[in-house]
């Protein structure tokens, strides 16, 4: 583990422009990974990291967030993501998607639901299909059938067409509730008779099994 003085030296090099901000993501990654899990310690280190920057190093922070995600360091993803949002930065569907995934993987369902409600309240008609799919996947992973139906109802009201995975999860949710009529209706309405598969390196259109 990297000692605290070394972390300060690394951050100092970055701030003195020995490296520009876009190349400092690995410095942030090293710095955050070496910290204890307490939110206060992480936020303090991140604040020091940007203390001498004239502009928020958004690209560097976003790259570090992706590295932490690839390493499945979900607590760190949540901490860095929340810190970015607290600074008014990273207010994008991509950041929201990453945080929802981290909440899912870290089993923070209540926190995910609160965050989702904030997203819907703030953005309403601009919430992407990807985010709807993410929150439905989260509820599916945690066996929250009625929540899946609620989110799907919002999708339909907003005219957001679900992807195939979401259709399957919603249909399964109706099945679990014993509502086979709505299950069939969802499948008939949204599941195309054709699908694409990869065969010998090519994307091929084939008829879906009945």
Largest sheet: 2 strands, antiparallel
Order of helices and strands: HHHHHHHHHHHEE
For this structure, the CATH topology of the largest domain is Serine Threonine Protein Phosphatase 5, Tetratricopeptide repeat
How many structurally independent domains? 2
Protein name: Pentacotripeptide-repeat region of PRORP domain-containing protein
InterPro entries: EMB1417-like, TPR-like_helical_dom_sf
How does this model look, in words?
The protein is mainly α and about 210 residues long. The protein folds into two domains: about 1-90, no CATH class; about 90-210, Serine Threonine Protein Phosphatase 5, Tetratricopeptide repeat. It has eleven helices and two strands, in the order αααααααααααββ. The chain has helices at about 5-15, 25-35, 40-50, 60-70, 75-85, 95-105, 110-125, 130-140, 145-160, 165-175, 180-190, and strands at about 195-200, 200-205. It has a two-stranded antiparallel sheet with strand order 1-2. Helix 1 (about 5-15) packs antiparallel against helix 2 (about 25-35) and helix 8 (about 130-140) runs antiparallel to helix 9. The protein is elongated and about 60 Å long. The protein starts with a helix and ends with a strand. Mean pLDDT is about 85; it is low at about 1-15 and about 15-20. InterPro entries: EMB1417-like, TPR-like_helical_dom_sf. It comes from Aquilegia coerulea (Rocky mountain columbine). This is Pentacotripeptide-repeat region of PRORP domain-containing protein.
Which terms would index this structure?
disordered N terminus; two-stranded antiparallel sheet; 2 domains; 11 helices; 210 residues; mainly alpha; 2 strands; elongated; Serine Threonine Protein Phosphatase 5, Tetratricopeptide repeat; single chain
